[in-house]
Each structure stands twice: as structure tokens, then as C-alpha cells.
């Protein structure tokens, strides 16, 4: 078996393609990182063979020795499935935390996504609260992005609106969504702000830009963003139709939480 025949590799490529098909990752917009176990890599690659060493602007010592499948900087999601070796790569964080070993892919001098520091910071934050965490995913989900121009951006207000748009939302993300200020992408500053929020939510909205999601696997993380984006789409239609005349009430949401055994973010429901 080679790496391209593995389940995790096929799932990664399919997810990138699905995100592009949804219109969330135009051109080179968006990025994915998947944390893998060494045992998964040992089955398909000789991990002593390093193709290149890539420097990084962030000290990822807390992830030293860990393996990640990552999308490339400037690479188009629409090309991942057809030419993965040019658009994604398998990397390992060196012991010093400041260099990466490239073990597969990212051919022709390509490098990992410019958002890698933000991803790594979020991986570190999530692993501290959930040892099953494996995925960080960033995209420009259309309706969520549009909402950041027209909706109150306090976390409570945005969360409540999304919960009220689709019955399933409270069940899928009972901890709600977080929001950070607008910051320059690709910087440690935006990574730090995102990671701070990732300590207690799996969805972080970047106003006028997009969203970050995290989860146990690619399907779960994709589905998490997809659910929030569907709620934002419904909100857009409702506003276009003149605004809501009725909605899911707080009592409805509390009954829903009890039925599905989830705990809504404290203080968000009356």
C-alpha cells in the first residue's frame, strides 16, 4: 500500500473537493490539517527519508514529533483530488518546533499553508481539552461570511441566531460559536486569538473572512461547519423574506437539549 491508497488520504482529498464544490474554498482560499498517528504513517512511508526541511515562523515544540497531512500554500482545492502530490503534503514537526520535515508531497518547492501557525495553535489548544481531536479546517463559508457584515457579532447573539435557524444546530454545537476581531491572516496574532477561543468552542468565526472548525475526524469537522453554514443560509433567506414571524423559542431549545443530552453554553438561553 502507498499513502494515496490509505483511507485517511482519500478522505482528505474528498473533503477538500467537497469544500470546493460547496463554494467555500475559491481559488486558494481555505486550508486543512489532519493530525495522524505514527503507526498510520509507518505502514506507507519510510519516515527516515526527509525530502526537505521547511522553516516555520511559530515555535510548535508542543507538537514535536507529530505528523500532519496539510494543504499547500497558494494551492487550489479544486486540484487536490487530481494532483495531490503537488497540492498537499505530509509533514513532521522537528524536535526544535521551528522546522518541519517534509516526508511526502508538496512537489516543485511548494510549502504548507500560510495559516499553518494558526492551525498548530488550534491543534495545541484542542488537544489540551480533547485527546481525540485530530482536525483543523478553515474555509470561507458563504452565508456565515455574509452574516458577519449584517449581524451583531457578539458570540451570544450570533450563537442564538444560528441555534434558532435549524433545530439540529444546538445538538451539533451546544457550546456555540466564538468570534474574534478582524486580524491579518497568516500571522501569529490571528492564530493566538483563534486558539484562545478553541479552548472552549470548536467553531471560530473570522469576521469578513471565514470560519475555523475543529473535530475528531474530517467528516465530523466538515459536518460541523456545514451545519452552521446551513443555519446561516436559512437566516439569509428569512431576512430576504422580511424577517422571522416565529422561531424556535428558548423553551424549545432547552427541551431539545434535554432530549439529546447536551448542555447549552451557560447564560445563552433564558
What's the β-strand tally?
Answer: 9
Low-confidence stretches: none
Give the overall shape.
Answer: elongated
Q: Number of DSSP helices?
A: 10
Task: Give the fraction of residues assigned to helices.
Answer: 25-40%
- Largest sheet, spatial ordering of strands: 2-5-4-3-1-6-9-8-7
Radius of gyration: 19 Å
Overall pLDDT, averaged? 97
Largest sheet: 9 strands, mixed
Specify the structural class: alpha+beta
Compressed to H and E, one letter per element, the order equals HEHEEHEEHEHHHEHEEHH
Distance between the termini: 55 Å
What proportion of the residues form beta strands (DSSP E)? 15-25%
Descriptive labels:
alpha+beta; 40% helix; zinc; EC 4.1.2.19; nine-stranded mixed β-sheet; Aldolase_II/adducin_N_sf; Rhamnulose-1-phosphate aldolase; lyase; 270 residues
Protein topology:
Elements: H1 7-21, E1 31-36, H2 38-42, E2 52-55, E3 67-71, H3 84-87, E4 88-93, E5 99-105, H4 116-129, E6 135-139, H5 142-150, H6 155-165, H7 169-172, E7 178-179, H8 188-198, E8 203-206, E9 210-215, H9 218-240, H10 250-260
Parallel strand pairs: 7-8
Antiparallel strand pairs: 1-3, 1-6, 2-5, 3-4, 4-5, 6-9, 8-9
Q: Can you put this structure into words, describing what you see?
A:
Helix 4 (116-129) packs parallel to helix 8 (188-198). The chain has a nine-stranded mixed sheet, sandwiched between helices. It has ten helices and nine strands. Helices cover 40% and strands 17% of the residues. The chain has helices at 7-21, 38-42, 84-87, 116-129, 142-150, 155-165, 169-172, 188-198, 218-240, 250-260; strands spanning 31-36, 52-55, 67-71, 88-93, 99-105, 135-139, 178-179, 203-206, 210-215. The model has no long low-confidence stretch (mean pLDDT 97). 41% of the residues are buried. With 270 residues, it is α+β, with helices and mostly antiparallel strands. Strand 8 (203-206) and strand 9 form a beta hairpin. It is found in: Cytoplasm. Pfam families: Aldolase_II. Catalyzes the reversible cleavage of L-rhamnulose-1-phosphate to dihydroxyacetone phosphate (DHAP) and L-lactaldehyde.
Amino acid at each position: 500500500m502507498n499513502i494515496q491508497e490509505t483511507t485517511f488520504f482519500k478522505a482528505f482529498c474528498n473533503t477538500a473537493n467537497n469544500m470546493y464544490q460547496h463554494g467555500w474554498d475559491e481559488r486558494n482560499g481555505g486550508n486543512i490539517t489532519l493530525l495522524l498517528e505514527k503507526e498510520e504513517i509507518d505502514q506507507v512511508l519510510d519516515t527516515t527519508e526527509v525530502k526537505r526541511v521547511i522553516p516555520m515562523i511559530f515555535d510548535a515544540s508542543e507538537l514535536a514529533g507529530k505528523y500532519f497531512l496539510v494543504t499547500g500554500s497558494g494551492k487550489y482545492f479544486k486540484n487536490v483530488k487530481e494532483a495531490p502530490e503537488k497540492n498537499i503534503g505530509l509533514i513532521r514537526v522537528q524536535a526544535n518546533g521551528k522546522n518541519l520535515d517534509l516526508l511526502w508531497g508538496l512537489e516543485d518547492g511548494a510549502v504548507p499553508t500560510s495559516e499553518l501557525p494558526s492551525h498548530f495553535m488550534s491543534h495545541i489548544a484542542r488537544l489540551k481539552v480533547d485527546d481525540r481531536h485530530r482536525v483543523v479546517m478553515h474555509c470561507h463559508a458563504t452565508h456565515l461570511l455574509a452574516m458577519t457584515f449584517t449581524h451583531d457579532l457578539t458570540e451570544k447573539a450570533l450563537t442564538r441566531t444560528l441555534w434558532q435557524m435549524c433545530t439540529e444546530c444546538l445538538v451539533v454545537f451546544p457550546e456555540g460559536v466564538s468570534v474574534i476581531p478582524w486580524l491579518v491572516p497568516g500571522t501569529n496574532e490571528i492564530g493566538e486569538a483563534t486558539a484562545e477561543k478553541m479552548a472552549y468552542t470548536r467553531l471560530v468565526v473570522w469576521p469578513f473572512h471565514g470560519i475555523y472548525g475543529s473535530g475528531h475526524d474530517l467528516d465530523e469537522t466538515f459536518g460541523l461547519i456545514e451545519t452552521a453554514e446551513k443555519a446561516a443560509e436559512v437566516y439569509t433567506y428569512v431576512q430576504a423574506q422580511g424577517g422571522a414571524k416565529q422561531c424556535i423559542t428558548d423553551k424549545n431549545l432547552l427541551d431539545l437539549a434535554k432530549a439529546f443530552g447536551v448542555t447549552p453554553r451557560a447564560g445563552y438561553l433564558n
